[in-house]
Prior knowledge:
Layout: E1 6-9, H1 14-22, E2 28-29, H2 43-59, E3 66-77, E4 80-82, H3 88-98, E5 102-115, E6 118-132, H4 137-144, E7 166-170, H5 173-177, H6 181-196
Parallel strand pairs: 1-2, 1-3
Antiparallel strand pairs: 3-4, 3-5, 5-6, 6-7
Amino acid sequence: MDQTEKIVLASASPRRKELLAQIGMIPEIVPSTIDEIITTDVPKEAVMELSCQKAEDVACFQKPGTWVIGADTVVAAGGEILGKPSDHDDAFRMISLLEGKTHQVYTGVTLVYCGERGRKKRTFVEKTDVHLYPMSNEEIKSYADSEEPLDKAGAYGIQGKFAAFIKGIDGDYNNVVGLPVGRVYQELKKMAEEERE
């Protein structure tokens, strides 16, 4: 990938921005303004669909030589997709579903390259299994009533206070934070090589 090319993150998530910065990518932040519409209750398909909608929406307004990264993360427990909680009660409900069990975190990523000859697109999904320790009602309530769960899929942040209840993970830790940056970098590199061929 050419260092002079612009990278745009189609997300206002401070965590995604930090993860990209960690690997030396400083994106311009252009959040998508589309109404998110999910037409499936399959977590893997839902995140791919939403990441695609976000990336394509933002890519429409970019100049040639720009890379757009769109992403969407959901937590899935017992077949139910858990997005961001609507309030503290909803956060309590979600954490109650997760405690003491294993759940999945899916992040869909869509990369769009705005080239001179049109746009190229690649979408993939990353899944991580997260194992939690059992939690008492008091622990769930205390966490659910804090501000931390409100802007996070599945009502928790693995990198915050909730770390006290994480027994282990199988897969990419950064994926649970909100973006599998290792895979993003590798996929961007592949696309850039194809673009030069």
